[in-house]
Amino acid sequence: MKLVLRALVVLLGLLIIVLLVNTVRLTSHQLTNVPPATPIHVPDSAIQRLAGAIRIPTVSYTDYALTDTTQFDKFLTYIKASFPLVHQRLKQETFNQYGLLYEWKGSNPSLKPILLMGHYDVVPVIQGTQRMWKKPPFDGIVEDGYLYGRGTLDDKMSVIGLLESAEYLLQSGFQPERTLFLAFGQDEETSGLRGAQTIAAALKKRSVSLEYILDEGGIIKTDGVSGMQKPVALIGISEKGYLSLELTAVGKGGHSSMPPPQTSIGMVAEAISKLEKQPFPARLDGGVDHLLDYLASEVSFGQRIVFANQWLFAPLIEKTLAQTKSGNASIRTTTAPTIFRAGAKDNVLPIDATATINFRLLPGDTVDGVIERVKEIIENDSITVSVLGKGNNPAAVSDPETPAFLTIHKTIKSVFPDVAVAPYIMLGATDSKFYSALSTAIYRFSPLPLNDEGTQTIHGTNERIGVKDYQNMIRFYVALIKNSQQ
């Protein structure tokens, strides 16, 4: 017994040594001593130009017939008048009439181009919620340091901010060495098929190979992450895939006074219950592992031990993250029943019942794998499983150690010196997924400071952007373009 106890003590001692060595050997990924970006004056007229863009309701609908394309015509006319040098000196192409691609030719053809992108369509304002807005959603009103309106955070601020940056650089006589593409989609909120997919296909046909791509995405989360109070700039290195399945059961129908042991509704309900009780397994290798690596040097010593030794503490980390909706979604493929259709009268048994289940796929999972697992879990051949629309696999995880990521990191630090920088997995989808054939370095970041309350206004009520935050966004894009020339 003494020998066993001694062996356990020795093993425990060795484990503690390993944990401490891993923690002490941990190197910080955070850049230090980054020179501040060259100061530039962003005039008040810049926020007014964004306000003008907000006043044009470029709302896109899944049913394209409902989309008022006259507003998109107005938007194109508006940006042409607002940014004359961009439209005089940069090559411009349109795709499906409203998708926009600008090319600013670089002086050094040996350097791969970069592509900065966004979208200018917006989601509708839910009918009946207009009265809940502090300012009308399409009036573009500035008050108390904020510009209110649909699109101020998603995503006209990126489109207009990039155009402002290009116009400023043209005015200052800047000539890029590296060719710069600006790509703006008109239907990201509905599919991206008319805009980004078409633009990406055209560039692929021309054999364009890009140094990196930057789309909308992560923000500067001002209330921190993982127990940190320090603001964290989150750069999306991947995004989850998308799949909706329909589960359909067919019964005989009849009078409700003589029901069978299980109706079609009961069969589908049982299948849903099984799926909710057996979630997809949690994993840290879908992008969270990189987030923890980057933040390990910024947290308390106790947390640092945990972050630096994921091989041992992965179950604890997964359990902790699973306690919040966003944390849980970052470590697994999620299962969300969203629609149920069955029955027409309270005393009539429905013949068929159909439920729609939405899945957001963590990198490492696939559409085919999810479908197979769903069938295994529900274990009912009487239920038909069919794909609704077209699913897509998760985006490949882009390396956070590339020169391109370093450039973005450096630029963030030069404009926002007090923030930590970390890669993460985006829970939503962006137009960048269509450009995977053009570059392995695809990143998603919107240089905007927001807390949890602010992020709730994206697609929600009282969407707004701080005037100073928008000015800093323009400064970021100007600095990024300059920093990307090597």
Automatic annotation (TrEMBL):
Pfam families recorded: M20_dimer (PF07687), Peptidase_M20 (PF01546)
Q: Does the keyword Cytoplasm apply?
A: no
- Which cellular component terms (GO) are annotated to the entry? extracellular region
Q: What residues form the membrane-spanning segments?
A: none
Superkingdom per UniProt = Bacteria
Keywords of the record, alphabetical order, are:
Hydrolase, Metal-binding, Protease, Zinc
Swiss-Prot/TrEMBL GO biological process terms: amide biosynthetic process; amino acid metabolic process; lipid metabolic process; proteolysis
The Peptidase M20 dimerisation domain sits at 237-381
Protease among keywords: yes
The record, for PANTHER family, names:
N-FATTY-ACYL-AMINO ACID SYNTHASE/HYDROLASE PM20D1, N-FATTY-ACYL-AMINO ACID SYNTHASE_HYDROLASE PM20D1
- What is this protein's record name? M20/M25/M40 family metallo-hydrolase
User: Organism, per UniProt?
Assistant: Spirosoma endbachense
